[in-house]
Amino acid sequence: MAKKGNRIQVILECTEQRAAGVPGISRYITTKNRKNTPARIERKKYNPFMKKVTLHKEIK
């Protein structure tokens, strides 16, 4: 049976890359606790297409 918990998988996508018009999409998969963090999360992660650390926001 599937595990029913508060931890869910979320996808983080780069926001600066689309605005700059650089080809490709930088995405990361992580988990978050739905009960403790109901809002969408934002993290600074490395973007290999732009070769720098950029802001990644949760999508969906």
Q: Strand sequence of the main sheet, in spatial order?
A: 2-1-4-3
The total count of strands amounts to: 4
Determine the mean pLDDT.
Answer: 91
Helix/strand/pairing category: mainly beta
Report the major sheet.
4 strands, antiparallel
* Portion of residues within helices: under 10%
Q: What is the number of helical segments per DSSP (H or I, 4+ residues)?
A: 1
Q: What is the radius of gyration?
A: 13 Å
Span between termini: 25 Å
**3D shape:** elongated
> Which series of helices and strands comes N to C?
EHEEE
pLDDT under 50 segments (min length 5)? none
Question: What portion of the residues fall into strands of 2 or more residues?
Answer: over 45%
List keywords for this structure.
single chain; 60 residues; mainly beta; 4-stranded antiparallel sheet; ribonucleoprotein
What secondary-structure arrangement, pairings included, does this model have?
Elements: E1 7-14, H1 16-20, E2 27-33, E3 42-47, E4 52-59
Antiparallel strand pairs: 1-2, 1-4, 3-4
GO cellular component, one term: ribosome
Protein name: Large ribosomal subunit protein bL33
Pfam families: Ribosomal_L33 (PF00471)
